[in-house]
Amino acid sequence: APMRFSFVADHFAYLAGIGVIALVVEGAAGWWARPAGGPRARAALAALAALLALLGLLTWKQTRIYLDVEDLYRHTIRHYPESHLARVNLAAILRRHGEIDEARGHYERVLLDWPDWPWTRARALTGLGNLEQQAGRLEEAERLFREAAELTPVAPEPGYNHANALLLQGRYEEALGEYERVLVLLPGHAQARYNLGYALEQLGRFADAQGHYARVTREKPGFALGWTGLARMEQRRGQPEKAIDHYRRARQLDPGSSGILMGEMEALLQAGRRGEGLAIAQTLAGGGAPDPALAFEVARRLRAAGEHADAVRALRGALVARPGDRRLRMLLAEQLAAAPDDAVRDGEEALGLALALRDEIGADDPGLLAVLGVAYAEAGRFGEASAVLRRGEDLARRSGLEDLLPTLVERREAVDAGRGWRLPRRGEQR
C-alpha cells in the first residue's frame, strides 16, 4: 500500500537494516571479548562515545523534520516532488493560512503529475474547488466539484462539496439530488441531511424539510443546526414558544453562534416577549467594535419584526465603530425615511445619508435609488422622488434585476399618489 503514495520512505530501511546491525554488533562484541589492556579499552570506550554522539546528532537533525506537519510535508516534497499525498495535505494547510497562490500551485502540480489516478485527481480538484468557493467564484467551484464527483462516484466528499456549491448558488432543485446521493453512501451524514432539509425549505416543501430536521435531531442530538431547522419550522407554523425551546437547545450545544441567537431573538419577538428579544438584539449589535455584517442582519430582522426604533438604535451603535460602512448607512437612511412611527422618521437626515452614498457610489445603483427616492419623498420633494424611482426602475430592467423591480414600482406609485412610502408596523404583513 505505501507504494501507492511514495516509492521511497525512511521506514523501508528498517527491515533491511536488521542484517547490517546484527553483523556490526556481532563484530564489535567479538572484538570487545578479546583480551586487551587498559589503553585498548579506553580507545574502545572513546570510539563508542563518539559513535553515540554522532548518532545522537543525526537523530536530533532528523527530529527537525517533525516539528509540525507542515514541515514534514515540505520535507517530503523536497525529497519526492511527485508525492501527491504530501502536496494535497500541504495545500489544505496553506489554504487555511491564507497562502492561496502556493496552495493552488500544489493542487495544479498534482493534476499535472497524476493524470490517470482518479482518486488523486479528485482530491486536487476538490482542493481547487474550495479555493474558488472561498474567492466567491461559485460557478467555477461547482464545475470543479462536479468533475471530482464524476471521477469518484462512490466517494461521498466530492459529491457533498458539489451539492454545497449548488446550494450556495440557490440551485436548490439540483442540490437535492446531490445530497440524496451522498446520503445513500453515508446515511448518518448530519450536515448533508440538514442541508437537504434547508434546500427543501427554500423550495417551500416544509413538511419534507421538517422530516429531515427531525431525523437529524433523533440521530445526532448533539448537532446544533438540526434544532435550528426544527425551530424555523415551528416559527412558520405559528408556534414561537416551541421554536424558543429548540433555539435554546441549539444554543446549549453551540453557545458562540450568533445565528442561533438571532433566531431566538426573532422567536421571542414573534411570541410577544419583546424585552427578552431586544436584550438579545442589544447583545448581538452592541459591544466596542461590532461586526458590521452582524449588526446589519440584526437591524434587518428587528425591522422585519416591526421594532423600527430599536433597528435604528442598533444601526447607530454599529456606525459609531464603523462610520464608513455603506450597507449600514443605506439601511439607516431607509429606516429614517420610511419607518411607520413619526418619532423614528427624520427625512432630512435620511436624505443627507442617501445623497452622501450617491456621491460615493454613483447614481446607477437601483438599490440606492430605491432608498434615495423614499428619502426625497419624506423630505417633501416628491417630484425628485418620482424621477429617481423611475430611473431606478429603468436601470433594474436593463440590468436584469427583476427581484428589485416590484419594490421600486411600489415606492414610485406611493410617491406619485403624494404620500411617503412606509415600512410595515409590528404585526403587519406586506
Automatic annotation (TrEMBL):
<feature type="repeat" description="TPR">
    <location>
        <begin position="122"/>
        <end position="155"/>
    </location>
</feature>
<keyword id="KW-0472">Membrane</keyword>
<dbReference type="Pfam" id="PF07721">
    <property type="entry name" value="TPR_4"/>
</dbReference>
<feature type="transmembrane region" description="Helical">
    <location>
        <begin position="43"/>
        <end position="60"/>
    </location>
</feature>
<keyword id="KW-0812">Transmembrane</keyword>
<dbReference type="Pfam" id="PF13428">
    <property type="entry name" value="TPR_14"/>
</dbReference>
<feature type="repeat" description="TPR">
    <location>
        <begin position="224"/>
        <end position="257"/>
    </location>
</feature>
<dbReference type="InterPro" id="IPR011717">
    <property type="entry name" value="TPR-4"/>
</dbReference>
<keyword id="KW-0802">TPR repeat</keyword>
<protein>
    <submittedName>
        <fullName>Tetratricopeptide repeat protein</fullName>
    </submittedName>
</protein>
<feature type="repeat" description="TPR">
    <location>
        <begin position="156"/>
        <end position="189"/>
    </location>
</feature>
<dbReference type="Pfam" id="PF13424">
    <property type="entry name" value="TPR_12"/>
</dbReference>
<keyword id="KW-1133">Transmembrane helix</keyword>
<dbReference type="InterPro" id="IPR052943">
    <property type="entry name" value="TMTC_O-mannosyl-trnsfr"/>
</dbReference>
<dbReference type="GO" id="GO:0042802">
    <property type="term" value="F:identical protein binding"/>
</dbReference>
<dbReference type="InterPro" id="IPR011990">
    <property type="entry name" value="TPR-like_helical_dom_sf"/>
</dbReference>
<dbReference type="InterPro" id="IPR019734">
    <property type="entry name" value="TPR_rpt"/>
</dbReference>
<feature type="transmembrane region" description="Helical">
    <location>
        <begin position="12"/>
        <end position="31"/>
    </location>
</feature>
<dbReference type="Pfam" id="PF13432">
    <property type="entry name" value="TPR_16"/>
</dbReference>
